[in-house]
Amino acid sequence: MKQLIKRLKEDQKLQEIIAYLFFGGMTTVVNFITFFLARRLFGWNLVISNTLSWIFSVLFAFATNKRWVFKSQTTSMRQFFSELSKFFFYRIVSFGIDMGCMLLFVDSLNMKEFWAKLITQIIIVVANYVFSKFFIFTQKNT
C-alpha cells in the first residue's frame, strides 16, 4: 500500500489519469442531472435536454480540465482563447457523437434512456480525454 501511495505521488501521468477520471465522472454527474431535470421536471424533448446538459457539462469540464487535470497555465489571452476555442471545437465533435449515440440507442434500438446515457457518457469520456490530452492542452505554459 505504501508503494502504491508513493507511486501515485511520483507518477504525473497516473495523477493526470486519476484526476481526469474523477472530473470526467463529475462532468458526467453534471450532464446526467441537467439532462434528467430537463426531461422529467420540465418535460423538454430529448434533443433540447441533451443539448442543455452538454452546455453545462462542457463549461464545467473546461474549468476542471484546464486547472486540475492538465494544469495548463496560459500566459496570454491569446493562449487562453486558443485553448478555449479548441476545447469547444472538440466538444462539439463529441456532442455529435453523444447525440448520434443517444438517438441510435433510444430511437433505433429502443434502449432505456438511463442505459443509453450511461453507455454514451463512457464513450464520450474516453474521446474527450484523447482530444484534451493530444489536441487541446498540449503544452504546459509557465
TrEMBL record:
Transmembrane segments: 20-38, 44-63, 87-106, 118-137
Keyword Membrane among record annotations: yes
UniProtKB keywords: Membrane, Transmembrane, Transmembrane helix
Residue ranges constituting the GtrA/DPMS transmembrane domain according to the UniProt record: 20-137
Recorded topology in the membrane: Multi-pass membrane protein
UniProt GO cellular component terms: plasma membrane
Coiled-coil annotated spans: none
Protein name: Teichoic acid glycosylation protein
